[in-house]
Amino acid sequence: KAGVTQTPRYLIKTRGQQVTLSCSPISGHRSVSWYQQTPGQGLQFLFEYFSETQRNKGNFPGRFSGRQFSNSRSEMNVSTLELGDSALYLCASSLTGLGEKLFFGSGTQLSVL
Amino acid sequence: AQSVAQPEDQVNVAEGNPLTVKCTYSVSGNPYLFWYVQYPNRGLQFLLKYITGDNLVKGSYGFEAEFNKSQTSFHLKKPSALVSDSALYFCAVRDKNNFNKFYFGSGTKLNVKP
């Protein structure tokens, strides 16, 4: 079984631009969640999708948004990029997301210049 | 208030010695508790979880964790550390009383010296 795939692996953007990150979960997994990892803040939960609906949301500004498609693939969008958005963005999937272990992708390293 | 706390940024231990990585949580009820490990330039990997039942949970690579409800702790342990255990360890909590939100600790860097 293929693992969680995140694309692209690396991304360089400038302030004010927008960016879209993609995540393909493990086949059969319907829950996809997103996390921001930075050296200073650790791992912070962004949001979770299940069956195309946002089920949970962390404490991030509205510039951060996401969606999930009918095949469970998910995208995350960040608009009006700021320098502080530079981070490793991780996606994780699980069957239903409730009490199960998460399977993580390798992440997308976003650098905002 | 921080939902998950890992009080140590770094833990140093000699190979062959026992190791403990600490985690405390502050969510109500009986949350789901997890430990994940992250090796350099890779995503997180699941180690173990506590849902209910026996307070001592055994996981991958010889790791185990002890759930203590009165102290709201879920410390990760291993009887004999290996150099290959050197990595970043994250404790995580799934809050069943708050829309099943996931909270991760800030991470603890484990250094195992030969």
- The amount of beta strand of chain A, in percent, is over 45%
Count of separate DSSP helical elements of chain B: 0
Q: Tell me, briefly, the overall form of chain A.
A: globular
Rg of chain A is 13 Å
Q: SS-based structural class of chain B? A: mainly beta
- How many H/I helical runs of chain A? 0
- Binned, the helix content of chain B reads under 10%
Chain pair sharing the greatest interface: A-B, 24 and 22 residues
Q: Flag low-confidence runs of chain B.
A: none
Report the end-to-end length of chain B measured between terminal Cα atoms: 38 Å
Helix/strand order of chain A: EEEEEEEEEEE
Question: How would you portray this structure in words?
Answer:
The complex is a heterodimer of chains A (113) and B (114). Chain A is mainly beta. Chain A has strands at 5-7, 10-13, 19-24, 31-38, 42-50, 53-57, 64-68, 74-78, 87-94, 103-104, 108-112. In chain A, the strands form two sheets. In chain A, strands 2, 4, 5, 6, 9, 10 and 11 form a seven-stranded mixed β-sheet that branches. In chain A, strands 1-3-8-7 form a four-stranded antiparallel β-sheet, with no helix packed on it. In chain A, strand 7 (64-68) and strand 8 form a beta hairpin. Chain B is 0% helix and 52% strand. The radius of gyration of chain B is 14 Å and the shape is globular. The model of chain B has no long low-confidence stretch (mean pLDDT 91).
